[in-house]
């Protein structure tokens, strides 16, 4: 799928928080960082935890299982025990609606 898909209302993604959504059967986590919406795969590459249940710390999501961290913008693993990056997705907001593109 390489089309834009409507996934949520921007107002539903809490400031400095997360919102789990399902996009075509795939778990995705939306983030609101200073009013800008980002999206990653919702499952930690290390411990199979839902990242949407983690904590945002300075633009990173901390896994709720083992406290490994990922950069929300790039998906890069930034703290042990996580070493494998997570997938990120392009997003855009139009008229208050969050759109995601799976490439």
Can you tell me the residue ranges where pLDDT is under 50 for at least 5 consecutive residues?
none
Q: Describe the biggest sheet?
A: 4 strands, antiparallel
In percent, how helical is the residue content? under 10%
The CATH homologous superfamily is named Rieske [2Fe-2S] iron-sulphur domain
Estimate nothing, just give the exact number of structural domains.
1
What spatial form do the alpha-carbon principal axes imply?
globular
- What top-tier CATH class fits best? Mainly Beta
What's the rounded overall pLDDT mean? Answer: 95
Count of alpha and pi helical runs: 0
Major sheet: order of its strands? 2-3-4-9
SSE class: mainly beta
CATH structural architecture: 3-layer Sandwich
* SSE string, helices as H and strands as E: EEEEEEEEEEE
- Extended strand count: 11
Q: The CATH topology, please?
A: Rieske Iron-sulfur Protein
Distance from first to last alpha carbon: 6 Å
Q: Which short descriptors sum up this protein?
A:
103 residues; mainly beta; Rieske Iron-sulfur Protein; 4-stranded antiparallel sheet; 11 strands; 0% helix; 48% strand; globular
Notes on the structure:
- This protein is mainly β.
- It has a single domain (4-101), classed as Rieske Iron-sulfur Protein (3-layer Sandwich).
- It is built from no helices and 11 strands.
- The mean pLDDT is 95.
């Amino acid at each position: 799928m390489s089309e834009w898909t409507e996934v949520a209302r921007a107002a539903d993604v809490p400031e400095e928080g997360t919102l789990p959504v399902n996009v075509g059967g795939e778990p995705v986590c939306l983030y609101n960082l200073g009013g800008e919406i980002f999206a990653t795969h919702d499952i930690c590459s290390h411990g199979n935890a839902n990242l949407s249940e983690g904590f945002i710390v300075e633009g990173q999501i901390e896994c709720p299982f083992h406290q490994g961290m990922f950069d929300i913008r790039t998906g890069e693993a930034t703290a042990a025990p996580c070493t494998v990056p997570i997938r990120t997705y392009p997003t855009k907001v139009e008229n208050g609606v969050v759109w995601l593109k799976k490439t």
